[in-house]
Amino acid sequence: MSSLRSVKIVATLGPSSNTPDTIRQLCLTGVDVFRLNFSHGSHEDHKQSVKNIRYAERMSGHPIAIMLDLQGPKLRIGTFENRIVPLQIHQKFQLDLDPTPGDNTRVYFGYPDILKSLVPGTDILIDDGKVLLQVDELHEDRLIATVRSGNEISDRKGVNLPSVCLYIDAMTPKDAEDLSFGLELGVDWVAVSFVQSADDIKRARAKVPNWIKIIAKIEKPLAIKNLNAIIEAADGIMVARGDLGVEVPLERVPGIQKQILQKCHYLGKPVIVATQMLDSMVTAPTPTRAEVSDVANAVYDGADAVMLSAESASGLHPVQSVHIMDRIIRQVESDPTYLEKLRSPFDANVCSAITSAVPCIVERSNISVIATLASSGTTVLRLSRERPNAPIIALTNNEHTARFLCLVWGIHALLVNDLTCVSIEDWVKTVRRIILREKMAPSGSYVLIVGGHSDFSTNFMTIVDL
């Protein structure tokens, strides 16, 4: 059990990694969750990826989760006659509703409602901030802006409006189609892009069955303002540092990341830190020292999972990237000080009182394994929130529950069909039998069993020896 890792690894699939053999290697190297980025690839590509993942899952003998990442509403400019045009600092540049190809003075921007919502002085970022325009004049069918930075602009680049509240549904018609397709494939998590309020999550929730879990991607300034409500509404959070670093000043991103991790931990919601974690490994076989520190600090700060994007999707070293990330996480988890700062404050209710006592009992009783029954996952999430210094084995006969727990800190789900839990005594006997059968703890060691009975979701614990 000492080989089990608490912090999970999410890997994005793409051209470099979506073959059956590579997916199986990624599983063996340590991937817990595979991300399907629906901003790229066809439905047929993603269907084949799911087939390959489920095959690797059967071969590995343990649950693997699949995350569908929706593209969301991406604002883009139109095209240019020469594809790429030069810009000069302080020159005037126009965004308008004319769909004809642009030049170095203007380009198509087909969002009339957004044009109406802007005001003079608004910053417009194009191509992930490589070009900065500042609005000077607004007209019914166009705006005139001054180029503040950037020396060229090209076809179909993305547009960000950091200071503007955009009244756009977080789920586009394309997203709705992708979501319906993903549900048919049997995904376990759905990541919603462009989230600005809890209402975006509630609208997404209405479109999926309750066993599918929803992740809110935090990448907009308004999402930070509404962070508490979004965390409450979502099942998990992703710190999407790519778009976030465009929408807010770069120097604010580390502090926002820490704020999100703290709040998610307090509320018991799993949180992923994403984007450019080992970015140099897209081409290089080893990361930079700064990237190693970035991953390690995310782990020290309490992340449930860390994510690889281009590193595993289109990079030259997808399996090595996972291997390096696994090594970094294990090194942090071997630090005796790692868990000291991650204990949760006490909540005044019976269920939290039981789970908050678990870390102390583990440390004073030489507990090898914590075991619990996972039905809805409520007790499991409470246990994870306490960050105990022992693996948490979640026994479940529900395939959906086993897979969604792949993203949760410290949880190792075991799918079993012969769960007998009519009474507490039955539950204890069942856990003891399965732990011994699966060789999940050595004979003579102690297991802490935590569970719920009667009207409470979590109301008992007991220690058994094997």
Account of the protein in words:
- With about 475 residues, this protein is an alpha/beta fold.
- It has three domains: about 10-70 and about 170-330, TIM Barrel (Alpha-Beta Barrel); about 85-160, M1 Pyruvate Kinase, Domain 3, CATH 2.40.33; about 345-465, Pyruvate Kinase, Chain: A, domain 1 (3-Layer(aba) Sandwich), CATH 3.40.1380.
- The chain is about 35% helix and about 20% strand.
- The chain is built from 17 helices and 21 strands.
- The chain has helices spanning about 20-30, 45-60, 110-115, 175-185, 200-205, 220-225, 225-235, 240-245, 255-265, 290-300, 310-315, 320-335, 350-355, 360-365, 380-385, 400-405, 425-435, and strands at about 10, 35, 65-70, 85, 90-95, 105-110, 125, 130-140, 140-150, 150-155, 160, 190, 215-220, 235-240, 270-275, 305-310, 365-375, 390-395, 410-415, 445-450, 460-465.
- A hairpin with a 2-residue loop joins β8 and β9.
- α13 packs across α15 (about 380-385).
Summary, kept brief:
With 466 residues, the chain is α/β, with parallel strands linked by helices. The chain is built from 17 helices and 21 strands. It has an 8-stranded parallel β-barrel, surrounded by 7 helices.
